Amino acid sequence: MIVRRKKRPGLDWRRAMCLGLLFFLLAGCEVGQEEKTGQERLVRLDNLQQLPDRQVDPDLQSLRIGVGAILSPQGTALSYQPLIDYLGRKMGKPAILVQRKTYQELNDLLARNVVDLGFICTGAYTEGARNGTISLLVVPQINGKTTYRSFVIVPAASPAQGVVDLRGKVFAFTDPLSNTGYLYPLSLLHAIGQQPETFFGRTIFTYSHDRSIAAVMEGLSDGASVDSLVYEFAGKRNEAIGRQTRVIWESQDFGIPPVVVPRTISPARKAMLKELLLGLHHDADGEKALAELGVERFVEPDPGMYGL
Description:
This protein is globular. The protein has two domains: about 65-145 and about 255-305, D-Maltodextrin-Binding Protein, domain 2; about 150-250, Periplasmic binding protein-like II (D-Maltodextrin-Binding Protein, domain 2, 3-Layer(aba) Sandwich), CATH 3.40.190.10. Residues about 1-60 have low confidence and may be disordered. The protein is about 40% helix and about 20% strand. The protein has helices at about 15-30, 75-90, 105-110, 120-130, 180-190, 195-200, 210-215, 230-235, 240-245, 265-280, 285-295; strands at about 35, 40-45, 65, 95-100, 115-120, 135-140, 145-150, 150-155, 170-175, 200-205, 225, 245-250, 255, 260, 295-300. By secondary structure, the protein is an alpha/beta fold. Helix 2 packs antiparallel against helix 11 (about 285-295). The protein starts with 12 loop residues before the first helix and ends in a 9-residue tail after the last strand. The strands form four sheets. It has a six-stranded mixed sheet, with helices on both faces.
Protein backbone atom coordinates (compact mmCIF):
# COMPACT_ATOMS: atom_id res chain seq x y z
CA MET A 1 0.00 0.00 0.00
CA ILE A 2 1.33 3.42 -0.96
CA VAL A 3 0.90 6.09 1.64
CA ARG A 4 0.79 9.60 0.24
CA ARG A 5 1.72 12.44 2.52
CA LYS A 6 -0.94 15.07 2.70
CA LYS A 7 0.34 18.44 1.55
CA ARG A 8 0.08 21.23 4.04
CA PRO A 9 -2.17 24.07 3.02
CA GLY A 10 -0.56 27.23 1.70
CA LEU A 11 2.79 27.76 0.00
CA ASP A 12 5.80 25.65 0.87
CA TRP A 13 8.84 27.50 2.25
CA ARG A 14 10.79 27.54 -1.03
CA ARG A 15 8.01 29.18 -3.00
CA ALA A 16 7.38 31.61 -0.19
CA MET A 17 11.04 32.69 -0.14
CA CYS A 18 11.15 33.12 -3.95
CA LEU A 19 8.00 35.20 -3.99
CA GLY A 20 9.23 37.24 -1.05
CA LEU A 21 12.54 37.94 -2.81
CA LEU A 22 10.75 38.90 -6.02
CA PHE A 23 8.51 41.32 -4.12
CA PHE A 24 11.54 42.85 -2.39
CA LEU A 25 13.36 43.42 -5.68
CA LEU A 26 10.31 44.92 -7.38
CA ALA A 27 9.51 47.14 -4.43
CA GLY A 28 13.09 48.43 -4.33
CA CYS A 29 13.32 49.33 -8.04
CA GLU A 30 13.31 53.03 -8.78
CA VAL A 31 12.91 52.89 -12.54
CA GLY A 32 10.04 54.43 -14.45
CA GLN A 33 7.10 55.99 -12.61
CA GLU A 34 5.47 54.52 -9.52
CA GLU A 35 1.91 55.03 -8.39
CA LYS A 36 0.26 54.16 -5.06
CA THR A 37 -3.12 52.47 -5.05
CA GLY A 38 -4.29 52.02 -1.45
CA GLN A 39 -1.56 50.09 0.30
CA GLU A 40 -0.08 48.74 -2.99
CA ARG A 41 2.64 50.17 -5.21
CA LEU A 42 2.43 49.78 -8.98
CA VAL A 43 5.78 49.55 -10.77
CA ARG A 44 5.58 51.04 -14.25
CA LEU A 45 7.68 49.17 -16.81
CA ASP A 46 6.74 51.30 -19.80
CA ASN A 47 9.16 54.15 -19.12
CA LEU A 48 12.48 52.42 -18.47
CA GLN A 49 15.66 54.46 -18.98
CA GLN A 50 18.76 52.89 -20.52
CA LEU A 51 21.82 52.99 -18.29
CA PRO A 52 24.76 54.98 -19.71
CA ASP A 53 27.79 53.08 -21.05
CA ARG A 54 30.28 52.49 -18.27
CA GLN A 55 33.73 53.83 -18.98
CA VAL A 56 36.49 52.33 -16.86
CA ASP A 57 39.05 54.83 -15.65
CA PRO A 58 42.59 53.48 -15.50
CA ASP A 59 44.21 53.24 -12.09
CA LEU A 60 46.77 56.01 -12.14
CA GLN A 61 48.77 54.18 -9.47
CA SER A 62 49.60 51.30 -11.84
CA LEU A 63 50.67 50.69 -15.41
CA ARG A 64 48.54 48.15 -17.28
CA ILE A 65 50.16 46.58 -20.34
CA GLY A 66 48.01 44.47 -22.64
CA VAL A 67 49.63 41.87 -24.86
CA GLY A 68 47.69 40.28 -27.70
CA ALA A 69 47.54 36.51 -27.92
CA ILE A 70 50.22 36.35 -30.60
CA LEU A 71 51.92 33.88 -28.27
CA SER A 72 50.26 31.51 -25.82
CA PRO A 73 49.85 32.90 -22.27
CA GLN A 74 52.94 31.01 -21.09
CA GLY A 75 55.05 32.26 -23.97
CA THR A 76 53.79 35.81 -23.53
CA ALA A 77 54.62 35.93 -19.83
CA LEU A 78 58.15 34.63 -20.40
CA SER A 79 58.90 36.96 -23.29
CA TYR A 80 57.25 40.18 -22.12
CA GLN A 81 57.79 40.13 -18.35
CA PRO A 82 61.30 41.69 -18.44
CA LEU A 83 59.97 44.60 -20.51
CA ILE A 84 56.93 45.03 -18.26
CA ASP A 85 59.13 45.06 -15.16
CA TYR A 86 61.47 47.58 -16.80
CA LEU A 87 58.67 49.99 -17.71
CA GLY A 88 57.21 49.73 -14.23
CA ARG A 89 60.52 50.61 -12.61
CA LYS A 90 61.11 53.56 -14.92
CA MET A 91 57.65 54.98 -14.33
CA GLY A 92 57.73 54.28 -10.60
CA LYS A 93 54.49 52.28 -10.71
CA PRO A 94 53.53 48.61 -10.40
CA ALA A 95 53.30 47.23 -13.95
CA ILE A 96 50.61 44.64 -14.64
CA LEU A 97 50.47 42.21 -17.57
CA VAL A 98 46.95 41.98 -18.98
CA GLN A 99 46.13 39.06 -21.28
CA ARG A 100 42.99 37.97 -23.07
CA LYS A 101 42.24 34.97 -25.25
CA THR A 102 41.29 36.88 -28.40
CA TYR A 103 42.56 39.96 -30.19
CA GLN A 104 39.10 41.52 -30.06
CA GLU A 105 38.99 41.33 -26.27
CA LEU A 106 42.23 43.30 -26.00
CA ASN A 107 40.96 45.84 -28.51
CA ASP A 108 37.90 46.30 -26.31
CA LEU A 109 40.11 46.96 -23.27
CA LEU A 110 42.06 49.58 -25.23
CA ALA A 111 38.84 51.20 -26.41
CA ARG A 112 37.65 51.53 -22.80
CA ASN A 113 41.03 52.82 -21.58
CA VAL A 114 41.44 49.83 -19.27
CA VAL A 115 45.03 49.27 -20.40
CA ASP A 116 47.63 51.99 -20.98
CA LEU A 117 49.73 50.21 -23.59
CA GLY A 118 49.01 47.44 -26.06
CA PHE A 119 51.20 45.07 -28.07
CA ILE A 120 48.78 43.92 -30.74
CA CYS A 121 48.54 42.28 -34.14
CA THR A 122 48.49 44.26 -37.38
CA GLY A 123 44.92 43.18 -38.16
CA ALA A 124 43.76 44.15 -34.68
CA TYR A 125 45.41 47.57 -35.07
CA THR A 126 43.74 48.35 -38.40
CA GLU A 127 40.39 47.37 -36.88
CA GLY A 128 40.90 49.63 -33.85
CA ALA A 129 42.25 52.50 -35.95
CA ARG A 130 39.21 52.41 -38.23
CA ASN A 131 36.98 52.50 -35.16
CA GLY A 132 38.87 55.52 -33.82
CA THR A 133 39.79 53.86 -30.51
CA ILE A 134 43.52 53.12 -30.91
CA SER A 135 46.57 55.26 -31.70
CA LEU A 136 49.99 54.18 -32.97
CA LEU A 137 52.85 54.72 -30.53
CA VAL A 138 55.97 52.90 -31.80
CA VAL A 139 56.86 49.84 -33.86
CA PRO A 140 59.54 47.19 -33.31
CA GLN A 141 62.50 46.90 -35.64
CA ILE A 142 63.72 43.36 -36.28
CA ASN A 143 66.71 42.53 -38.50
CA GLY A 144 66.69 46.13 -39.64
CA LYS A 145 63.10 45.94 -40.90
CA THR A 146 59.67 47.02 -39.71
CA THR A 147 57.78 44.51 -41.83
CA TYR A 148 56.85 40.86 -41.57
CA ARG A 149 55.13 38.13 -43.60
CA SER A 150 52.58 35.37 -43.36
CA PHE A 151 53.97 31.83 -43.65
CA VAL A 152 51.84 28.82 -44.56
CA ILE A 153 53.52 25.84 -42.92
CA VAL A 154 52.98 22.07 -43.10
CA PRO A 155 54.60 19.01 -41.49
CA ALA A 156 58.04 18.33 -42.94
CA ALA A 157 56.85 15.00 -44.39
CA SER A 158 53.76 16.49 -46.06
CA PRO A 159 53.61 16.18 -49.86
CA ALA A 160 51.94 19.62 -50.10
CA GLN A 161 53.82 22.15 -52.20
CA GLY A 162 51.26 24.96 -52.13
CA VAL A 163 48.03 26.07 -50.52
CA VAL A 164 45.92 24.32 -53.18
CA ASP A 165 47.40 21.00 -52.03
CA LEU A 166 45.69 21.46 -48.64
CA ARG A 167 42.18 21.02 -50.05
CA GLY A 168 40.15 18.75 -47.78
CA LYS A 169 42.79 18.90 -45.03
CA VAL A 170 42.72 20.21 -41.46
CA PHE A 171 43.96 23.80 -41.28
CA ALA A 172 44.81 25.93 -38.24
CA PHE A 173 44.00 29.65 -38.15
CA THR A 174 45.19 31.90 -35.33
CA ASP A 175 42.50 34.50 -34.59
CA PRO A 176 39.72 36.14 -36.62
CA LEU A 177 41.54 39.51 -36.38
CA SER A 178 45.00 38.10 -37.14
CA ASN A 179 46.47 39.48 -40.35
CA THR A 180 48.97 36.68 -40.97
CA GLY A 181 47.02 33.98 -39.17
CA TYR A 182 43.62 34.48 -40.79
CA LEU A 183 43.00 37.53 -43.00
CA TYR A 184 45.84 36.81 -45.43
CA PRO A 185 45.12 33.08 -45.98
CA LEU A 186 41.46 34.03 -46.35
CA SER A 187 42.43 36.37 -49.18
CA LEU A 188 44.37 33.55 -50.85
CA LEU A 189 41.27 31.39 -50.88
CA HIS A 190 39.06 34.23 -52.12
CA ALA A 191 41.51 34.76 -55.01
CA ILE A 192 40.73 31.23 -56.25
CA GLY A 193 37.02 31.52 -55.55
CA GLN A 194 37.05 29.41 -52.40
CA GLN A 195 35.84 29.68 -48.81
CA PRO A 196 37.59 27.99 -45.85
CA GLU A 197 34.39 26.17 -44.85
CA THR A 198 34.22 24.35 -48.18
CA PHE A 199 37.88 24.22 -49.21
CA PHE A 200 39.32 22.65 -46.05
CA GLY A 201 38.04 19.47 -44.50
CA ARG A 202 38.08 21.17 -41.09
CA THR A 203 39.43 24.39 -39.61
CA ILE A 204 40.41 25.32 -36.07
CA PHE A 205 41.38 28.53 -34.26
CA THR A 206 44.37 28.16 -31.93
CA TYR A 207 44.44 31.81 -30.68
CA SER A 208 48.23 32.05 -30.77
CA HIS A 209 50.92 31.54 -33.38
CA ASP A 210 53.04 29.23 -31.26
CA ARG A 211 50.00 26.99 -30.73
CA SER A 212 49.45 26.90 -34.49
CA ILE A 213 53.05 25.81 -34.97
CA ALA A 214 52.61 23.15 -32.27
CA ALA A 215 49.40 21.92 -33.93
CA VAL A 216 51.33 21.21 -37.13
CA MET A 217 54.26 19.62 -35.30
CA GLU A 218 52.00 17.34 -33.28
CA GLY A 219 49.91 16.24 -36.26
CA LEU A 220 46.74 17.97 -35.10
CA SER A 221 46.68 20.08 -38.25
CA ASP A 222 47.86 19.49 -41.83
CA GLY A 223 48.75 23.15 -42.23
CA ALA A 224 48.69 26.55 -40.56
CA SER A 225 49.22 30.20 -41.38
CA VAL A 226 51.57 31.92 -38.94
CA ASP A 227 53.50 35.12 -38.24
CA SER A 228 56.92 34.87 -39.92
CA LEU A 229 58.62 36.64 -37.00
CA VAL A 230 57.19 34.21 -34.44
CA TYR A 231 58.07 31.21 -36.62
CA GLU A 232 61.67 32.30 -37.18
CA PHE A 233 62.26 33.38 -33.58
CA ALA A 234 60.74 30.18 -32.22
CA GLY A 235 62.85 28.14 -34.63
CA LYS A 236 66.02 29.66 -33.19
CA ARG A 237 64.99 28.60 -29.69
CA ASN A 238 63.66 25.18 -30.69
CA GLU A 239 65.47 23.47 -33.55
CA ALA A 240 62.77 20.79 -33.72
CA ILE A 241 60.48 23.34 -35.41
CA GLY A 242 62.78 23.50 -38.43
CA ARG A 243 63.08 19.71 -38.57
CA GLN A 244 59.39 18.93 -38.20
CA THR A 245 57.80 21.72 -40.26
CA ARG A 246 58.47 23.60 -43.49
CA VAL A 247 57.18 26.72 -45.23
CA ILE A 248 55.24 26.20 -48.47
CA TRP A 249 54.04 29.78 -49.04
CA GLU A 250 55.15 33.30 -48.11
CA SER A 251 53.12 36.47 -48.40
CA GLN A 252 54.30 39.93 -49.40
CA ASP A 253 55.59 42.27 -46.69
CA PHE A 254 53.11 43.80 -44.22
CA GLY A 255 53.54 46.53 -41.61
CA ILE A 256 54.89 44.92 -38.44
CA PRO A 257 52.58 44.39 -35.41
CA PRO A 258 52.68 47.76 -33.63
CA VAL A 259 52.65 49.08 -30.09
CA VAL A 260 49.56 51.19 -29.45
CA VAL A 261 47.78 53.24 -26.81
CA PRO A 262 44.12 54.12 -26.24
CA ARG A 263 42.99 57.15 -28.22
CA THR A 264 41.89 58.77 -24.93
CA ILE A 265 45.17 58.31 -23.02
CA SER A 266 46.54 61.46 -21.42
CA PRO A 267 49.16 63.23 -23.59
CA ALA A 268 51.67 63.19 -20.72
CA ARG A 269 51.44 59.44 -20.18
CA LYS A 270 51.60 58.79 -23.92
CA ALA A 271 54.73 60.92 -24.28
CA MET A 272 56.44 59.20 -21.33
CA LEU A 273 55.72 55.71 -22.67
CA LYS A 274 56.95 56.65 -26.12
CA GLU A 275 60.18 58.13 -24.77
CA LEU A 276 60.88 55.02 -22.71
CA LEU A 277 60.29 52.60 -25.58
CA LEU A 278 62.31 54.59 -28.10
CA GLY A 279 65.24 54.72 -25.66
CA LEU A 280 65.26 51.07 -24.59
CA HIS A 281 68.26 50.12 -26.73
CA HIS A 282 70.39 52.77 -25.00
CA ASP A 283 69.96 51.11 -21.57
CA ALA A 284 71.56 47.84 -20.45
CA ASP A 285 68.39 46.51 -18.81
CA GLY A 286 66.38 47.75 -21.75
CA GLU A 287 68.60 45.81 -24.14
CA LYS A 288 68.02 42.63 -22.13
CA ALA A 289 64.27 43.16 -22.30
CA LEU A 290 64.49 43.68 -26.06
CA ALA A 291 66.55 40.50 -26.45
CA GLU A 292 63.82 38.46 -24.76
CA LEU A 293 61.40 39.73 -27.41
CA GLY A 294 63.81 39.23 -30.30
CA VAL A 295 63.58 42.96 -31.07
CA GLU A 296 66.50 45.26 -31.93
CA ARG A 297 64.81 48.51 -30.96
CA PHE A 298 61.54 50.42 -31.15
CA VAL A 299 61.26 53.18 -33.76
CA GLU A 300 58.82 55.87 -34.90
CA PRO A 301 55.87 54.38 -36.80
CA ASP A 302 54.85 55.04 -40.39
CA PRO A 303 51.03 54.92 -40.53
CA GLY A 304 51.23 54.39 -44.29
CA MET A 305 52.55 50.84 -43.69
CA TYR A 306 49.08 49.81 -42.58
CA GLY A 307 47.16 51.19 -45.54
CA LEU A 308 45.21 53.70 -43.46
